[in-house]
Amino acid sequence: DTAVSQTPKYLVTQMGNDKSIKCEQNLGHDTMYWYKQDSKKFLKIMFSYNNKELIINETVPNRFSPKSPDKAHLNLHINSLELGDSAVYFCASSPGDRYQPQHFGDGTRLSIL
Amino acid sequence: QKEVEQDPGPLSVPEGAIVSLNCTYSNSAFQYFMWYRQYSRKGPELLMYTYSSGNKEDGRFTAQVDKSSKYISLFIRDSQPSDSATYLCAMSVRSGGYNKLIFGAGTRLAVHP
User: Chain A contacts of B105, Cβ < 8 Å?
Assistant: First the structure.
């Protein structure tokens, strides 16, 4: 039974399009995250939600908009996709903001043509 | 200078060897220290988690933290081909009232039979 699941696993699209990635966790965690991993494997936080409230918003372009309909789900919508958005996007969750060990999904590989 | 420095490798060792993976950091505000293992096309998986200076052992894995030197290590004893993966160190810091993780770039490890 997958703890943190992301859909889709692969996303190939053209520059300028809008796309969404979905994430769900069944661990009962309060806090969820979006990370971006670039081609050099460097993993960097983008957003964090605690009980549906945005608590971390790193310097990410406004084209990226996260949404948390409930504490088990965190989606990421990206407008006007650019070549530099090509990366692997990981969703993660943790029991709370203070207890940091995070559980990751297997990522969504986004390729912009 | 990055907040967390980690040699990307690759590191190639024979089966049965003792592997030493290291990270240095510059921010003395880091509180929690973690090691994640990431297999190809998978999400990072938490291996070890520690707060204080000293050693923590779990099976073939030992995590070591030296806060005075700002240096953490992961030792793998009796390495196996199944240990071949990228190992990411991560550190927790309080920022803007919330905790977030800062990751190293990851070290690619190959254990050959």
Answer: 40-42
